[in-house]
Amino acid sequence: MTIKERIMKFIIHKGLDTAVFERKVGLSNGAVYKMGDGTRRSTIDKISVVFPELNRDWLITGKGNMLNESYDQDVAGEASGKEKSGYITYLLPMSAMGGSLTGFSEPGAMLQNCEAIISPIENVDFGITVYGESMAPEYPSGSRILIKKINPAIFIDWGKAYVLDTPNGVIVKEIHRCDKEGYIKCHSLNPDPKYSDFDVPLCEVYGIYRVLMCLSAK
To answer: Does the model's pTM come out above 0.85?
Structure first.
């Protein structure tokens, strides 16, 4: 386990997002992802000051326990809030439109630009924020959804919610079979007539991601 993996384990233990951890410690955005054997001791010192419960020897060498034995868990719980357990995934720095196609293509996301978040379930590829009300109330605007890429040539679970990565933007929709060959029908859950169904050619879809879970709006 590398020093970056150890610090990520501690961040998960604390129930924090990576960006929140960096702000608390006073690190620059993305600093956690750059941590390695050459990490400055001044950075370790900053972390130790803010999180005295973290065993710095474990962080640097991997030896011993993650938490200092003398650390009072009850006091720490009151100071830092309730700890959460889960699995780490990454929040894409873009939104999935809960509406019609947006008319512009999003640039590819680099991992170092993604915020680490906690997923309560395993086998998640990414998280993404929903924008727009066409998929409300199940997926309201501002909520985060956890997604996993599928191979549409093997299987599509029709009638379920998916995120589609297209040349015209990223959208979240319930998808159905289409009468037109080579197309899929995108359906909104909001019954408002302005959110009408539309068809998308499969050949213009870069990726299809099954929505596994919806998290509360942030």
So the answer is: no
